[in-house]
Amino acid sequence: MPSLPALSTDQMREVDRLMIEEYHIELLQMMENAGRNLALLAKRMLDGDVADRPVVVLAGRGNNGGGGLVAARHLLNWGAWVQLLLTHRPEEYSGVPAHQLSILQAMDAPLAWAEEGWELPPADLIIDAVIGYGLQGDPTGAAANLIALANSSVAPILSLDAPSGLDTATGQLYSPHIVAAATMTLALPKAGLLTTAVRSAVGQLYLADISVPPALYERIGLDVPPIFAADTILAVEVVDGVARLLEK
Question: Measuring CA to CA, which residue among 168, 109, 116 is closest to residue 142?
């Protein structure tokens, strides 16, 4: 199986920019694709049936958190018992993540926000959508509290794009950082996910389609075949810093 190109953080920002400005694929669409695939992978990790299964979704107020909120909506629609834990009060969310949160509020989804003395409710799976690829430095405040709480749970953790607390550019693990059972990254692997040092934090790596046109990759100098022809979520193996799709 041919190796997959790895994106730098700057390249991922350029992919996001081109998607919106050149291809008119808006953030709302990308977030929906990411969140639905995240919910599908969560369903896979729960043996294909989420009905009445307790799932905790940890969501920051950035775009990564917005993807987690989309996943929460789908899981609720599929019958899971979802508890949302936010890093901030709902009125402090803005933009597209606030839009996603407003949908969940209209659905009367159970939600709370991180405060001192908090404990996680029992769960069969925890979804980590606290911090995305823009991290620089140690997580602080509510984000740090949620990361520590997640790691204290016996439930497996599924991270969106990268485990919160991992620098996707350098592979540096900040303190605290999520130790995930699985990580679903978007579009292409991020360079910081492929180092040997982060393997235990990333867990099993998956790649998910957010509808990036092949011609966009050509714009940034990458030759990427239609890798999602068979499925929108693909398992990835990493050997010596090189990512390859796992054969089914």
Answer: 116
pLDDT along the chain (248 residues), means of 10: 85 92 96 98 97 97 97 98 95 97 97 77 96 86 93 97 94 96 96 94 98 94 92 96 87
Which residues contact residue 13 at a Cβ distance below 8 angstroms, ignoring those fewer than 6 apart? none
Q: What are phi and psi of 71, to 5 degrees?
A: -60, -40
Task: Please answer whether residues 166 and 172 qualify as being in contact, where contact means their C-beta atoms are separated by less than 8 angstroms.
Answer: yes
Quick one: CA dihedral 21, 22, 28, 33, positive or negative? negative
Cα separation, 79 vs 61, in Å, equals 25
For 107-245, where are the alpha helices, taking DSSP H only? Answer: 141-152, 199-202, 214-219
Give the relative orientation of helices 27-45 and 95-106 as an angle to the nearest 10 degrees.
50
Half-sphere exposure of 196 (CA within 13 A, CB side): 2
Query: Whole-model pTM?
Result: 0.96
Per-residue buried b or exposed e for 54-86, using 16+ beta carbons within 10 Å of the residue's own CB:
bbbbbbbbbbbbbbbbbbbbbbbebebbbbbbb
Residue 222, pLDDT score: 92
Nearest Cα to Cα of residue 146 among 177, 122, 125:
177
Q: How far apart are CA 208 and CA 70, in angstroms?
A: 15
Look-up of token digits 């934090």: 201
